[in-house]
Amino acid sequence: MNQSTYPLLENILIPGESAAFLQTLFEGARSWFQPQNPFEQFLIDMLAATLWRHARLATLEARILTIEQDIQPSFLLKQFKNLDAAGRAALVFNVWHKKFTALSRVEAIVLRNFHTLFKTFAEMRKAFPHPPRAA
Question: Does the global pTM surpass 0.70?
Answer without folding.
Answer: yes
